[in-house]
């Protein structure tokens, strides 16, 4: 689990998961009584109290080409990451997180917000969802996308972030299948769908 700098009041259960604090996310760990296994980033936002508390597990990556969120994706190996505390703060940081998801499609990560979860869609994605569950597809680049199990079919549509997106679609109930033609498609679901998303992506 990646813990970011945005205040987090409701952490998802992650028994047995490693906790990685990303720069100022270590301050949130300290606030919530969490013991991170690692604190990674350029550490320019790390508070003095957290720096002292977790000094034996600091990993400083000094380059400024990537964001701290990207540094965590690149340097932390895991089959699936739950990222908490990266959504709801500064808009530019939130947009950079979305770009990082698409820029590192092999680093499967679910970004968890107060109401939604967001992840980059694999080339062929299967999932079980109850009828009426909101399924939003947001392309960061122009692409085609096949799907089944959704109320509004996407086959034959040209999705484009500046023209046509697939927001506010919904599941018919049961299995859904999404197959984007290229990388860059984000899937946005209600937070209640987190366990199903973890099962599908893990």
TrEMBL record:
GO molecular function, one term: ATP binding
Domain Thiamin pyrophosphokinase catalytic per the UniProt entry, residue ranges: 18-103
One GO biological process term: thiamine diphosphate biosynthetic process
InterPro entries: Thi_PPkinase, TPK, TPK_B1-bd_sf, TPK_catalytic, TPK_catalytic_sf
Source organism per UniProt: Ketogulonicigenium vulgare (strain WSH-001)
EC number(s) from the headed UniProt entry: 2.7.6.2
Pfam families referenced in this protein's UniProt entry, alphabetically: TPK_catalytic
Enzyme category, top tier: transferase
Underlying gene: thiN
Protein name as catalogued: Thiamine diphosphokinase
Gene3D superfamilies linked: Thiamin pyrophosphokinase, catalytic domain
Keyword Transmembrane: no
UniProt cross-references to NCBIfam families, sorted A to Z: thi_PPkinase
Keywords, comma-separated and alphabetical: ATP-binding, Kinase, Nucleotide-binding, Transferase
């Amino acid at each position: 689990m990646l813990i970011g700098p945005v205040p987090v009041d409701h952490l998802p259960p992650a028994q047995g998961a490693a906790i990685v604090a990303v720069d100022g996310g270590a301050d949130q760990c300290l606030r919530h009584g969490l013991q991170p296994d690692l604190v990674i980033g350029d550490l320019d936002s790390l508070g003095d109290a957290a720096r002292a508390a977790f000094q034996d597990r600091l990993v400083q990556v000094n380059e400024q080409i990537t964001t701290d969120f990207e540094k965590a994706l690149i340097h932390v190996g895991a089959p699936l990451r739950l990222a908490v505390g990266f959504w709801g703060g500064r808009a530019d940081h939130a947009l950079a997180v979305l770009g990082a998801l698409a820029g590192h499609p092999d680093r499967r990560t679910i970004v968890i917000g107060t109401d939604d979860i967001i992840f980059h869609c694999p080339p062929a994605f299967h999932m079980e969802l109850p009828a009426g569950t909101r399924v939003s597809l947001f392309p960061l680049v122009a692409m085609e996308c096949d799907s089944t199990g959704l109320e509004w079919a996407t086959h034959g549509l040209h999705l484009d972030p500046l023209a046509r997106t697939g927001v506010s679609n919904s599941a018919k109930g049961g299995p859904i299948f999404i197959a984007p033609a290229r990388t860059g498609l984000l899937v946005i679901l209600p937070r209640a769908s987190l366990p199903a998303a973890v099962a599908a992506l893990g």
